[in-house]
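Tokens for chain A. Residues wanted.
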């Protein structure tokens, strides 16, 4: 059988851990067959795609996204995920966690079961596909609920969590939890024992409550600054702990709407290249014209890049390629640092380093080519230009 071979070259490659100058990446049948510098590589044999002046890197990994292209992940249908996946692939995202929103428990359980079945059986030829699930709700603070329906929020319950985990057939990999709620630390410990990562968010927690949940296993923070107790110099609260604790990962929505550029720089200085994570928190309107869309079971109005429900920001219409460009612009960081925040860091936080966030032999050839300003020039899925 003839193997289809494609070769990709560029000025640099960020492989998730280091920079390779003048890389030659050989792809056979959609898988990376070899990686070498131009000095070490043999004469390329196959169709060559050259990206002079650009940096190759791993396709992006979004651990917090509700939908895009007119669809919400909680629809949990093949058509919804195929449409979302095609759009995300075109914007450089190669993997994501399907993120739920607070809804009636029966609705959530049906969505989780539908998602689990779809994750387990990715259709042949499908592009970007979820590799796990992020539960955002229902264990959130009323004081910092954002647009999550107040009548559907619940206090942490191991029994309720277990029902969701079972409905999702074990595909839950991340859960947002407010540390100040009764039973939060106990649930954090229980979920962590099952391999679920705990991200603290939608929270009005004080510092002591936050530290207790970290001790119980929390590893990250959900959309830092947003839906989070404001910083105070005597009671640092959840935000102060998140920024000061070097062990914690921390998400950020880098759209210039959710967080001002000055605070993006503060977050970057606090968390650094090893713990910062860029997300979208995108909802169905991402990639769509202004209008009315849904997030879970409620209506969201989108205009001029803002998604609003009842006067409150309701997710975003951001894509990770724009998040990367904004991050480089706001901070002045090298583009490979931004690529790390979109790949290696979310993969490390969720335990998916073997499936996302790096470029290595034997892996699917899911790549991006970006310029120094962080602009996405080309998305590559399974060795094919998208």
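Reply:
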């Amino acid at each position: 059988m003839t193997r289809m071979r494609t070769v990709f070259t560029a000025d640099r490659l960020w492989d998730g851990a280091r920079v390779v100058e003048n890389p030659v990446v050989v792809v056979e049948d959609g898988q990376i067959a070899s990686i070498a510098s131009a000095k070490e590589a043999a004469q390329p044999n196959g169709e060559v795609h050259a990206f002079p002046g650009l940096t190759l890197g791993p396709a992006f990994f979004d651990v917090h996204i509700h939908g895009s292209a007119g669809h919400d992940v909680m629809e949990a249908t093949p058509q919804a995920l195929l449409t979302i996946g095609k759009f995300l692939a075109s914007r450089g995202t190669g993997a994501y966690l399907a993120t739920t929103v607070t809804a009636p428990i029966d609705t959530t359980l049906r969505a989780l079961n539908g998602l689990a079945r779809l994750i387990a059986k990715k259709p042949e030829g499908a592009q970007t596909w979820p590799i796990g699930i992020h539960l955002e709700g229902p264990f959130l603070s009323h004081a910092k609920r954002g647009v999550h329906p107040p009548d559907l929020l619940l206090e942490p319950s191991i029994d309720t969590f277990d029902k969701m985990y079972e409905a999702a057939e074990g595909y839950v990999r991340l859960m947002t939890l407010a540390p100040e709620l009764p039973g939060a630390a106990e649930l954090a410990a229980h979920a962590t024992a099952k391999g679920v990562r705990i991200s603290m968010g939608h929270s009005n927690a004080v510092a002591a409550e936050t530290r207790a949940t970290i001790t119980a296993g929390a590893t990250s923070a959900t959309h830092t600054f947003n839906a989070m107790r404001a910083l105070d110099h005597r009671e640092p609260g959840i935000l102060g702990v998140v920024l000061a604790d070097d062990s914690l990962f921390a998400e950020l929505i880098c759209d210039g709407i959710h967080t001002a550029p000055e605070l993006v720089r503060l977050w970057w200085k606090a968390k650094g290249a090893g713990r910062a994570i860029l997300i979208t928190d995108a909802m169905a309107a991402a990639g769509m014209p202004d209008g009315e869309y849904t997030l879970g079971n409620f209506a969201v109005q989108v205009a001029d890049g803002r998604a609003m429900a009842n006067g409150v920001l309701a997710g975003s219409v951001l894509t990770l390629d724009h998040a990367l460009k904004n991050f480089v612009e706001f901070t002045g960081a090298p583009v490979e640092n931004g690529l790390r925040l979109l790949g290696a860091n979310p993969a490390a936080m969720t335990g998916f380093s073997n499936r996302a966030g790096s470029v290595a032999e034997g892996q699917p050839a899911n790549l991006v080519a970006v310029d120094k300003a962080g602009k996405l020039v080309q998305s590559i899925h399974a060795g094919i230009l998208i």
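The chain has two domains: 5-57+362-385, 60-350. The two ends are 25 Å apart (CA to CA).
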